[in-house]
Every structure is written in structure tokens, then in C-alpha cells.
Specification:
With 116 residues, this protein is of the alpha+beta class. It has two helices and five strands. The protein starts with 6 loop residues before the first helix and ends in a 9-residue tail after the last strand.
Length: 116
């Protein structure tokens, strides 16, 4: 999918509204519009990468940043003690529906294993 057709790129550009929880120079954090837990946010890099498979060695620090920001948001929202789950879906078969890399951070309910 091209950047001009990407839902997340449009939200980041301000063309579509989003419920932002955090923003920095590398990423944004939005509340999911179809939450699967009481806290369900998406950590989205500003740079368009279709999936984790598209990320290369040069994005390693960005990938780490996305995970750390997700942890910070979960902790800031009071989920440090009970825990939280981070998920990256890669490909349609794994549940990826928006083809712009993003990290789901879920908390506030019991999580089961396996998840799927």
C-alpha cells in the first residue's frame, strides 16, 4: 500500500482524526478504535513501513523505541503491576489489517495463552 492511501499515514498527517496519547519525533500512540482490552493503544512509527518484514537493520533503533514507548504508555496508564501485552501482527494471515507497521499494547484484563 502506498503512503498516500495508508490510513495511519493519513492520521499522522492530520487528514483523519485520531485519539493521540503520545507523540514524538519518531512515533505516535493512538487509542485503538476497536479496543480489545480496557487499554488498547497502537504505537505507530511516523515513517511508513508496511510491516516488520520491511524493516531493515537501519530500523533496529526505531523498533526498540516503539517497544519502549509502548511500555512507558502502559506504565503511565497504571498497568505496570498487573502487566500488559505487546503484539505486532505481520501479514494478513497473522491479523494485520492496516499495512503500516504498528505495535498493539493491551492491558486492563486477563490475557490468555496462546492468544489466537
Amino acid at each position: 500500500m502506498s503512503e498516500e492511501n495508508c490510513l495511519f499515514c493519513k492520521i499522522i498527517a492530520g487528514k483523519i482524526p485520531g485519539d493521540f496519547v503520545h507523540q514524538d519525533e519518531s512515533c505516535v500512540v493512538l487509542r485503538d478504535i476497536n479496543p480489545q482490552a480496557p487499554m488498547h493503544v497502537l504505537v505507530i512509527p511516523r515513517a511508513h513501513l508496511e510491516s516488520l518484514d520491511e524493516a531493515s537493520q537501519k530500523e533496529e533503533s526505531l523498533l526498540g523505541h516503539l517497544l519502549r514507548v509502548g511500555a512507558r504508555v502502559a506504565n503511565d496508564q497504571g498497568h505496570a503491576e498487573e502487566g500488559y501485552r505487546t503484539v505486532i501482527n505481520t501479514g494478513a494471515g497473522a491479523g494485520q489489517s492496516v499495512f503500516h507497521l504498528h505495535v498493539h499494547v493491551l492491558a486492563g484484563r486477563g490475557m490468555h495463552w496462546p492468544p489466537g
